[in-house]
Amino acid sequence: MNANLLQTPIDYLKGVGPNRADLMRKELGIHTYQDLLNFFPNRYLDKTCFYKINELQRNSAEVQIVGKITHLKSVEQKRGKRLVADFVDDTGKMKLVWFRGQKWIRENLKINTPYVIFGKTNWFNGLFSMPHPEMEPVEEYKKQLRTAMQPIYPSTEKLAKSGISDRVINKLMQQLFIETKGKFIESLSREIITELKLLPKAKAVFNVHFPQSQELLTKAQFRLKFEELFYIQLQLLIKNMLQKQKIKGYVFDKIGDNFGEFYQHHLPFELTGAQKRVIKEIRADLGSGAQMNRLLQGDVGSGKTIVALMAMFIALDNDFQACLMAPTEILAIQHYNGLVELCKNLDTTIYLLTGSSKTKARREIHEKLENGEIDILIGTHALLEDKVQFKNLGLAIIDEQHRFGVAQRSKLWHKNKIPPHILVMTATPIPRTLAMSLYGDLDISVIDELPPGRKPIKTVHRYDANRLKVFAFIRDEIKKGRQVYVVYPLIQESEKMDYKDLMDGYESIAREFPQQQISIVHGQMKPDAKDYEMDRFVRGETQIMVATTVIEVGVNVPNASVMIIESAERFGLSQLHQLRGRVGRGAEQSFCILMTGHKLSNDSKTRLETMTATNDGFEIAEVDLKLRGPGDIMGTQQSGVLNLKIADIVKDNQILKSARYHAMQILKEDPNLSLEKNKVIRFTYAQVAKHKNIWNYIS
After folding, report:
1. How many CA atoms, within 13 angstroms, populate the side-chain half-sphere of residue 528?
2. CB under 8 Å to 193, separation ≥6 — which residues?
3. Would the pTM count as exceeding 0.85?
């Protein structure tokens, strides 16, 4: 088939015309024959079965019946009229009802002519009725390109109002298959098709739009989902491969005094098996000669900082400098204090550079950095300034990487002639399927166990009615010398209602705990005031911190053992998990109390049950992915990557794993896709890479 035919503007398809074409472009993004072909149904109605009227059940199932209209009349009602028809078959009688479009229906319906009707039934006054049924004369029904399963396509209000119904889309699809003769070029290799027993491309495309049976529909969907995910994975793996070939990295082949001395004599605790595994993976990268691009995932408190420090020691042992960039000043200061404490018995020079650093201190840092007197520089975005020049930067570590844009990260690349090795860290667990699709071009390490001695945080759900008991519990904890967070939702900084929540909360806490010092932190405060309040809490001058989610990332206060989250039903799962991670940092037992009203949606109940059942961030992330979908979790910045047409990375995660496995096997054997058997894949991949989307070309 001529591939160019599918690039024909949709206006030229018989039955479309300029007005419909305009609507389809605006509402559905359908510009060409190709786009229509890849406009997939989102569900199907099973029309394999015809019912007799005496077989109907009193449920709201959608059914299909063959019969005749014997009588038609208008019935007055409170507002306007309704049109009612008697519909009979050889077993009984039912009513068909229309509340709108009556004039057209009256003019077009034929009495005593056999019709196929389809719709939901109601039981009323001893008779079944069907409002606004789909109807087609039996004669017409037999002529159609008919399928057992009727596809239902995504729609919009505008389309429905303009009469572009499923039936219209279905007819346009039939026309498209007539014009293209249903012949589509194969886009997967014979080897994959045989091994996975996949339907041929043309048969899969046909059966997704006109399924001939349940079995063929299932096979068609599997084939097209696999293909979509396979080419996404192929793109990511090839990008990773090219990066390693093209971008040379410094070879850190020495493990010397810094690493050895710290590991042998100054490690404050035994490393977990997961930490040792991740350090091994990083060591292999740093010695490979290719630039490292690794994502380090580890739940709150899993010990990513020690791993980062060990990686920095490897850079130092090979006569290079290292830097660590954090998204906020508080977090940068915390990293700085933590690393200085860990390195106090070593000859390692560590400096801190933030937006608040004084001019004199900056000058000193710039000078010492350039002459190599600084080993490790910790800082915020201030590290990216052009004035900040290293003598020999070998490793750059980025904490909470999702808070930095791509442009900011690439500035670090240019801090040396050959780009430094990059390690990005996140405490936001990313479900494996999502990580494979979004960060498939990065190598991923996971720290999936907590250091020994850490007690799991006890999480409970309490209703507002139990507030006095919760206050009594807070009093007991403060008497033991502990500190408490009370967090309120501030969904948008400008929402007056939410701001009022926080201020009301602060006042009620102040009334309830008149003896205690209380800090308050929210997004409308000036940074200095915010830092001052945070600092008082960190130093233990205040016992209670009333805050909004601004404390979600950062502050390490080992003495804080209680986290109260007000209106917990208004938070997402990952946010609740991040907030909970603010406590449980000391040796004492810590608690997280989720406060809510009594009215809870099903999703809210699921979130609260998940939080009380587990402390495992990856388990929580999987539930979150099921509840919210990938787009919401990654935010707008990333969601374009997963603009999937037919696959769903939550429901189809097994297909995704299979697609990645097969893409890896092919590249292992044939990295340039130059073998004859992979010719089809090479051609399709070239098209995909050109269009950035597998469905933008005909395969």
Report:
1. 1
2. 186, 200
3. no
